[in-house]
Specification:
By secondary structure, the protein is of the alpha+beta class.
Length: about 475
Amino acid sequence: MTSALVECVPNFSEGRDRATIDALRDAITAVPGVRLLDVQSDGEHHRSVFTFVAPPDAAAEAAFQAMRIASARIDLTKHRGEHPRMGATDVVPFVPVQDVTMEDCAALARKLAERAGKELQIPIFLYAKAAARPERERLPDIRKGEFEGLRDRIGSDSAADPDFGPQRIHPTAGATAIGARPFLVAYNVYLDTTDVATAKQIARDVRTSSGGLPAVQASGFQVDGLAQVSMNLLDIDVTPPAAVFAAVEASARRLGVGINRSELVGLIPERALLGAAAAALKLPDAGDHILEAKIREASGPSLDGWIDALAGGAPTPGGGSAAALAGALAAALVAMVSHLTIGKKAYAAAEGRAREILEEAERLRAELRRLVDEDAAAYAGVTAASKIPKDDPTRARAIDDALVAACRTPADVARRAARVLALSTEIARIGNRNAVSDARVAEYLAETAIKGAVENIKVNVAGMSDKKRGEALLP
């Protein structure tokens, strides 16, 4: 099974207060469909980097809920750390992982930026592949002057006008950059010296803006009593970590210092480490010899894992996802019967139509499979809206809006399953007689998908305060 996945790597200007870091973690993991992969906090930099993957809408929801927590708990007027920062939530990048394009991630960034600017009253800048202005593609160009500098510029300098949100900085939460980009690797090299000037010189030697390596940003700091070359590798396929380390090491050698160690902040794609190992071993086909990769390839996706999640105590995945899966299984059976019909002499007269049915069934199968995950993600908005304080006058409308949005996925399931039902009835009539029972099972599954989807729409409508609005959604 495949589904759309994006990676989100929000950076927060808090690396010391465990209660705030835990609150950010809870906000992210409370959204159904989110898998938190890594959290790294650094007291010297006073920064925490979260890495999670999720379907697109769930990723945006989790990022927004974490931004809400950061805005409430982090005060930049009291923040001091080694890392440059302009916001409580400093940066929120989306990265395409699976069945998602960079353009999809840019659209997701714009959607989150608009919402955060409006609801949290934070000025938002779009950057990287989501940038609306070419001078804002590079994060350092946006963050120049940091919180204090932007506090003076926003509202008085048109060049600092945000893409979304108010024309003034948030008094404690600052400003945030939201964007879309390829995998970025945060990579630091510690030197055998306390001399920050040496680290800054090496950073100048290796970074793109000073004529060094392409797709590399670098600065020099003192961290844990050592000079550190802190880097962002913007495209590991252009400049891999092994090449960066070699360049840092060569520059350090010219300056008469050694390397103490290096570290990663957050996660790194497997191919980057494989590339480093291959270079060190002079082994050009290292990726073809990885035992674990071969095991994953042989094992395939885990249906058992999904069923275990369905049987668990969490509200998602639930009946809506199961209904969509029933529709996907029905479409798969229609495709199977079509395959068993095509190329058979006894059914030559039906072959043309069977090919058309096969093509449509395959498309519907992919769409219904996607809706299995989207149903769980769609409910995230309802969960978030229900957490609005009960005395907030916007709460009822927000819940109704979320319930309307949650109805869209089961409505899509019902429409597609209805089409699968029609195809299964037709292939049962014209297709291979030896597979007619399979076509009948497809009919039953498609009917179940329709009924299950309608039940999900009904339960969402029942939860609305505006009953007339809900009645219009019922089939």
